[in-house]
Design brief:
Elements (H helix, E strand, L loop, with lengths): L6 H14 L4 H14 L5 H11 L3 H8 L12 H7 L6
């Protein structure tokens, strides 16, 4: 179990909250479930990349995950690939 003053645990909790409260229900569900599954094992580098992803707008993220558009090259990293291949339903 993480310590209450563990900055990495605090960062993960903040990112999980941001993932679940995007504004559109679809992205709340997709990003929330993705974060629940992957944030506990993300490295600090991956957390930073995920934070960068969260700065993108819901319409863009949804278009990318739906395969309607391709993410920009600046977001072509392992975390984005995990997200694009993420299966919401088990």
């Amino acid at each position: 179990m993480s310590e209450p003053d563990d900055p990495l645990a605090t960062r993960r909790k903040r990112l999980l909250f941001r993932s679940r409260h995007r504004g559109s229900r679809e992205m709340d569900l997709l990003l929330g479930r993705f974060a629940e599954r992957h944030l506990p094992t993300f490295s600090e580098r991956q957390l930073a990349l995920f934070e960068e992803m969260l700065e993108q707008g819901d319409p863009d993220l949804y278009a990318w995950v739906a395969g309607r558009e391709t993410p920009p090259a600046t977001l072509a990293h392992d975390v984005m690939k995990l997200f694009l291949n993420f299966k919401y339903h088990d």
